[in-house]
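User: Hey, quick favor. My workstation is busy. Could you predict this chain's structure for me?
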Amino acid sequence: MHEYFIQNVRFHEDEVVTLKGWVYNLRKSGKIWFLLLRDGTGIIQCVVTKHDCDEASFDLKDVLTQESSVIVTGLVRADDRAEGGYELIAHKVELVSLAQEYPITKKEHGIEFLMDHRHLWLRSRRQHAIMRIRHTIIKSIRTFFDQRDFILVDTPIFQKMATEGTATLFETEYYDDKAYLTQSGQLYAEAAALALGKVYCFGPTFRAEKSKTRRHLTEFWMVEPEMAYYDLEMDMDLAEEMIMYIVAEVLLNRRQELETLERDISKLEAIRTPFPRMHYADAIKLLQEKGEDIPWGDDFGAPHETIIGESHSSPVLVHHYPADIKAFYMKRDAEEPKYALAVDMLAPEGYGEIIGGSQREDDLNVLLERMKAEGMAPENYQWYLDLRRYGSVPHSGFGLGLERTVAWICGLKHIREAIPFPRTMTRLTP
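Assistant: No problem, here it is.
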């Protein structure tokens, strides 16, 4: 049996097709009525008249409600005035399920109401566009690494120890022990990189950050490549290349969705390589020149990232952060040990950090010193330390936050729209 979808009707002009979907909207006008049908791939106008369809189909105009599920059979006809350039002249309309009064109407709804009805809000044009762009970003990430001979390695969700410090861990019972939801797959990806060369993991991560900003979720998705024999420069090159690939794929395949979101596409088209690269010390000078009271040695907050990002039309790579504000596993610069071989990529237009990475510390003794200095218990990391005992090499990696990337590319005001079902400090449902 052949399946037809709205996004493909252009290939079936003047053919009779059957579309299965839901009532997006309904307009009546005497002896004719119009059914806007959605099926998840698009929306098409179905023209229903007594002349073209049976009486039972025509009489459904007095029965159908918004989001009722229907099957419509009809003739595909080109029409420049119609959405997508095509409409369907209905021959038959079949009711599958009659929907109750739909809670989301054309009137303005508050964000909390919409988030309470997130399971239904996903059916709107705007949310369709965001989710389809998110899909393309995920697909482009996987294709990017596949084309470069990276191996996907799935890392555990339950972990015994912290990766990014203990302050943001979600603790859970694990039989007679306790475990934590993963903050990052990085440490395990490092092990895989020393086995397979170039790897990446891509999955959900969890941070118990007590933050209510528009950039934070407690559960988000992150892609984390790790590469043996890569230094910081190679790490930054790969991150830059990946972002260019993602943006190009979205511009190529999701222009209509970007237009639905009223995204300023010229901002994405203006992105060029090489991306600006800025030493942390120069970034501090820039912020001070802009009137920010931030001394050398402080980490950047959201306003600082916004200022740096807005100073360029392409993402900015800020590197060589002070070692004291970076994680234990980040390698120090041999010539200037006060700096870590770390990098953050800051998106333009005020969207802040979308990538964080570094060259990893590959010296066993130095790594042990760093762990002890931060009050960590090396005995809990013996398997990780083994990576430095048995064939240690220079290696690097980074993590890209998927939702922040979606928010930036879509031009969203809040990250909660960038994931199907967001989890925040105050939201655990739906």
